[in-house]
């Protein structure tokens, strides 16, 4: 009971601090100077029409690299926790006819939509993370529908590693050309795509990096699903 | 005429709260996972109405699909029903 009371007192103190701090800001006043800067300069500086994507990949590219790393560590942790020498699918029954037929019909469209989300990240809402998650749900559906299905591991795991290394490589090329990590060399040095802002071939390295992130997130989440579905073989640890 | 976008927003918030309460209270954990996924789905619609389509997409894919799948895999390896021992009501459990 003492713990509960202490917790409530702590919450009240924190809430009081937060309320005090927020009371200093006049209601409805525009205090977001950084946000205004981004909105005003996003087209000239990055070429992206979708300002959210420009902030995530271009202005705050290093944070996104950290985010990808966190996801990678999470996937590695899941794989390490569930690791056994011999593991296999142990589902006892196939999915129903509706699930099987539906997944066969929908699979290409879900994959296409996921790829569209991350390739067009600089034009329409979305980007590498939602696109990759959409692709991973397509593979999740395959796992649920078919008893024997397993992803081609010798394709997925190298692809995941190559996509991650590609992100770092793009950043390092920026370091060589422009002087800092993740410098947008395609847009600022080569001046490619300045004529067609708002079309696919614009926005410098944003589509390239978001395609790499999409592939990485998709393969990583699929790997997590694969690790969780499979169970150790009967008898052998 | 009533501003109906706002009615929909209120409706979605109410649905979110109701599904959250169900997700906590249901003893069948599989049903509770569906309740949790419903919270994410309604949150995704709410994000979309609040003009944050980027966040809405991530919430729908990660929150509703992937995390529900992870919970269902966990339930498959453990137990489906919550134990009945702590039968006290919500006013004591806090």
TrEMBL record, chain A:
Q: In what way does this protein cross or attach to the membrane? A: Multi-pass membrane protein
Q: Which UniProt keywords apply?
A: Cell membrane, Membrane, Transmembrane, Transmembrane helix
The Na+/H+ antiporter MnhB subunit-related protein domain covers 98-221
Give the domain of life.
Answer: Archaea
Q: Which residues form the MrpA C-terminal/MbhE domain?
A: 6-86
Residue ranges of the TM segments = 65-84, 105-123, 129-146, 167-187, 199-218
InterPro entries referenced in this protein's UniProt entry, alphabetically: CPA3_antiporter_subunitB, MnhB, MrpA_C/MbhE
Subcellular location field: Cell membrane
Reply yes or no: does the keyword Oxidoreductase apply: no
Q: Which GO terms describe its cellular component?
A: plasma membrane
Q: Does the keyword Protein transport apply?
A: no
- Name of protein: Na(+) H(+) antiporter subunit B
């Amino acid at each position: 009971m003492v713990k509960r009371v202490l917790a409530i007192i702590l919450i009240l103190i924190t809430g009081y601090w937060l309320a005090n701090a927020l009371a200093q800001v006049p209601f409805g006043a525009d205090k977001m100077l950084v946000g205004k800067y981004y909105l005003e300069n996003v087209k000239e500086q990055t070429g992206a029409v979708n300002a959210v994507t420009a902030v995530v990949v271009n202005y705050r590219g290093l944070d996104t690299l950290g985010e990808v790393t966190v996801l990678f560590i999470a996937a590695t942790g899941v794989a390490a926790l569930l690791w056994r020498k011999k593991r296999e699918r142990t589902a006892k029954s196939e999915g129903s006819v509706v699930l099987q037929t539906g997944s066969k019909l929908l699979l290409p469209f879900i994959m296409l939509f996921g790829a569209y989300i991350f390739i067009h990240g600089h034009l329409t809402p979305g980007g590498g993370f939602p696109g990759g998650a959409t692709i991973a749900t397509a593979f999740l559906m395959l796992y649920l529908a078919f008893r024997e299905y397993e992803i081609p591991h010798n394709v997925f795991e190298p692809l995941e590693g190559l996509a991650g290394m590609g992100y770092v490589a793009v950043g390092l090329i920026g370091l060589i050309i422009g002087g800092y990590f993740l410098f947008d060399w395609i847009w600022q040095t080569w001046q490619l795509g300045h004529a067609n802002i708002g079309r696919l071939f614009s926005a410098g390295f944003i589509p390239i990096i978001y395609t790499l992130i999409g592939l990485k997130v998709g393969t990583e989440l699929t790997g997590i699903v694969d690790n969780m579905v499979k169970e150790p073989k009967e008898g052998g640890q | 005429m009533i501003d109906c976008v706002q009615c929909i927003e209120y409706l979605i918030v109410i649905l979110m709260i109701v599904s959250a309460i169900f997700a906590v209270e249901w003893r069948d954990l599989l049903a509770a996972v569906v309740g949790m996924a419903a919270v994410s789905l309604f949150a995704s619609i709410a994000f979309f109405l609040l003009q944050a389509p980027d966040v809405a997409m991530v919430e729908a894919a990660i929150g509703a699909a992937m995390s529900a799948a992870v919970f269902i895999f966990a339930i498959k390896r453990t137990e489906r029903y919550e134990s009945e021992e702590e039968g006290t009501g919500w006013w004591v459990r806090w």
